[in-house]
Amino acid sequence: MDQQEINIKLSAADILRQGAKAAWPIGLGYIPIGLALGVLAQQAGLPWWAVAMMSTMVFAGSAQFICVAMLAAGASIPAIILTTLVVNLRHTLMSSALAVYLAGVNRKFLALFSYGITDESFAVNMTRFKNGQWDRWQALVVNHSSNLVWVVATVTGSLVGQLVPQGAFGVDYALTGMFICLLVFQLNGRIYIITGLLAALISVGWYLLIPGDSYIVGASVCAATLGYLLKRRYRSSK
Amino acid sequence: MTFSDYIFLFGGMGLVTYLPRALPLLYLTHKQLPQWLIDWLSLIPVAILSALLAPSLFADAVDRSFSLGKPELIVAIPTLIFALKTRSLGGTVLVGMLLYWLAGLLLNT
Predict the structure, then answer these.
(1) Chain B contact present for A88, CB below 8 A
(2) What is the structure's pLDDT at A66?
(3) End-to-end CA distance of chain B
(4) Which pTM was predicted?
(5) A93, A102, A208 member nearest B59 (Cβ)
(6) HEC per residue, chain A
(7) Does residue A62 sit at the B interface (CB-CB below 8 Å)?
(8) B43-to-A35, A68, B6, B49 alpha-carbon distances in Å
(9) Global ipTM
(10) I need a labelling partner for A213 at 20 to 30 A (CA). Which of A68, A93, A119, B89 fits?
């Protein structure tokens, strides 16, 4: 009985440790961005507790930046909420892609897990799931430890952010570096390389021509569909 | 803004952030997915990562114009090579940061 309890405790500690190990590049990237958001929010007149509330209730970096900018510009609450919805629609795609690895999992877990699906946690978890040996609990740790760092960083930014020099040690590049490496992890086969190149081309074109953030969802759906059609054609011609 | 304004604003934002993340997962995990959908979804991560990255490397955010000389892009090349060679996530992040920092120092002098 005691032995069993120890085993459970050990494995819980292992899960926490492995999850945190996978999440640290995310945290490293979130610190400068969170500090920057906190500073901007404070300049826009948000008290620190409102920043804490926002980061806990929303947890969506780009939407939070837009919210602060819109508040500073005097936008209405419904306009900000609507913009948030549009900016975050891309997460429906990520949530759908994660569903392949979380088939049949109970809904309570999924409800808790969904809260932490961000661009970053999605990319880290998908890479691990694809390589196997990744468990939903470790994925949950990635999501929630990232959120914790995010809340602490944004609140810290709103309190003391102006004291931190901008761009110190290249931290602004942490998430870009992470995305580059996670992209490399995804390139295991010709069809993935082609899809990635298509997405790059389409997203840049879309970004230049169409205002707003629709380029992320638009280019991803177009590139994945083209990639899928190419793959099917290649298969059937064989 | 009052406390209740903030509750209303962040509550609304939280809802429209949470639902797109939760609904597909809650629905699709309890369905038998057709093979074509699984195949299509397997291409989504590479497409999303590429679509998130490419405009930040090849376009200027201020006026949304095409740009081939951004420090972000120049630093991305050695960072990409490092990632291809080592396949180390933490290492790539640190190398990218270091190079970007150095690029900033060189360009500002």
Answers:
(1) yes
(2) 84
(3) 44
(4) 0.80
(5) A208
(6) CHHHHHHHHHHHHHHHHHHHHHHHHHHHHHHHHHHHHHHHHHHCCCCHHHHHHHHHHCCCHHHHHHHHHHHHCCCCHHHHHHHHHHHHCHHHHHHHHHHCCCCCCCHHHHHHHHCCCCHHHHHHHHHHHHCCCCCHHHHHHHHHHHHHHHHHHHHHHHHHHHHCCCCHHHHHHHHHHHHHHHHHHHCCCHHHHHHHHHHHHHHHHHHHHCCCCHHHHHHHHHHHHHHHHHHHHHHHHC
(7) no
(8) 33, 33, 39, 10
(9) 0.89
(10) B89
From residue B62, how far is each of A61, A83, B94 by CA, in Å?
Answer: 19, 20, 27
Closest residue to A170, CB basis, from B83, B90, B98: B98
pLDDT at A165 over 80: no
Nearest residue, CB atoms, A171 vs list B26, B97, B102: B97
